[in-house]
Request: fold
Amino acid sequence: MHEFRLPGVTHFGWGAVEKAGEEAARLGRRALLVTGRSAMKETGVADRVTKLLLDASVAVVLFTGVESDPRAGTVDRGAAVATAEGCDLVIGLGGGSPMDAARAIAAMAVLEGSVLDYLRGKPIDRPGLPLMNIATTAGTASEITPVAVILDEGRALKFGVKSPYWFAKVAITDPELTLSMLPALTAATGLDALTHAVESYLSTGATPPSKALAIRAVAMIGANLPAAYAEGTNRTAREGMAMGSMLAGMAFANAGLGLVHGLVHPLGARHGLSHGNACGRLLPYVMRFNLAAVDQELREVGGALTGDPAATAEDAIAAVERLLQTVNVPRGLADVAIPEADMPALARDGLLAGAVRTNPRQVSEEESLALLEEARRG
Ligand code: FE
Reply:
């Protein structure tokens, strides 16, 4: 037996953002609109969504300035604003950070205490305010998943928290909103999506439906990331990336992830690497570490990436390394200034994430350190 969950409704396609008004009106009357620092203003997407909401008679309270890697303090502040302003709906607009923040804010507007309590394991026992997430990147798939990654700034630790209550009521994945991403962001978010697809395919939590979605996502991301990176206005590539990212999100929302998604959290929290960039750097190392446990699945990943049904697990790793080269993201950590003394803490904290529990091969602290040392050598 297995279960499979998704957002209430997902709107996918060119112009899907136009659904925001009518969907919001279905969910509430006064929305907290959560966005990041700058990009939304520059591209006009925040103004466009605000107008759609107002036209649908939904009042808008803006909560802007969510940092990349949203802080627990930001989430608590957002929840306080939602409560003080009488919001009955939360809308996240942007990449993973604002959408994750929106999810946690919607939850904390109803739960007591600080989001820190829940990062530390307090049970989430009820639904939050209704949530609509609108993605402007093709990577995190936070519009699809029930996960929020939050930074505990006091301890410099990032935590992924999830709950079956945390699926959005409405998810909007509109490739048009991804056209303005610059190449480096396209690369990082695309490699995050690829890592979701590969890790959920290899996960011990994988099921037939999640694997069907994950392997298709591997193929779509492999086929479309180079063109989306090289030519941002290539609509076919942008649509392929948006679809691949969404399918990967549907897979990992249910199957879970793996060791990459543990190891990257402390690298982000302590060394400022962006989530997607760090995922790409470590993916080949973790694939090799997992090889003995999931040789067959890695062959299938290789087949999806190369189109060659006879591909080996080594071919899969080589294909990921070629993709990294194509989008100018280094493999490993050789160019990141990580002091030797920091390595044991990175290895230890990298195992804290729930994602590590569904990695196909069990990993000890020594193995975690050995893998990171190898990545550090490059
Ligand atoms: Fe991720």
About this structure: The mean pLDDT is 96. The beta strands are 9-12, 30-36, 59-66, 89-94, 131-135, 147-152, 157-162, 170-173. The chain has two domains: 9-177, 182-377.
